[in-house]
Design a protein that fits this description.
Blueprint (H helix, E strand, L loop, with lengths): L14 H4 L17 H15 L7 E7 L5 E3 L12 E3 L2 E6 L8 E3 L9 E2 H9 L12 E6 H7 L33 H5 L9 E4 H8 L1
Antiparallel strand pairs: 1-4, 1-7, 2-3, 4-5, 5-6, 7-8
Helix pairs in contact: 2-4
GO cellular component, one term: nucleus
Protein name: Protein N-terminal glutamine amidohydrolase
GO molecular function, one term: protein-N-terminal glutamine amidohydrolase activity
Amino acid sequence: MFSFKADIQNECMEMNSLNELKLPSKDECFYTSCYCEENVWKLCEYVKNNQNSLLPACYAVFISNRNQSIPLWCQKSGKDEDKLAVWDYHVIFIYSPCNDKGTLVCDLDSVLPFPVPLEKYAPMTFQYETCLKPIYHRFFRVIPAEMFLKTFASDRSRMRNPDGTWIKDPPPYPCLSTPESTNNIDEFISMDPSVGVGEVMNLNQFVEKFL
């Protein structure tokens, strides 16, 4: 298995100039811990507002499985030396232009560079699925960014305790909603291809699509 390397930051210094997409620095992005779906929504919104012509090359990717138990490495919340965390779900931003410059990943919860090439991110973050029990296999709901912006809604109720208090404090802006829904996040987290929007795929299909 791949292990986290402390000097990984030096591997991707050229990424900001590799493609046309210009994103804010990691420190300048909207970020709220444990609200990865909204962090990615805000990245999609930024591209739409500032580089709309590149939005078709951008995707929101929900990662989960039937058990809502997915191991990801190189995560800031990881406790061991490889920064392993087990999430119920996670969401990343993908930029995949139709050229030979490769696919970039933006993961605001990762210790890897921002952005980072998928060819670096995938082995470091997902490692080898053959080493995992099937209950931990990851699935990916890949949603074009414009579709994500138009369809995603969350009232943040998943982040409330039974008494109504917050498990984690929410972002400072209003809840995201659409004319059709105020809360459909469970459809995005679900890896049932018969519900929700986008395309559901396994790890091999995801890597093959973007690499």
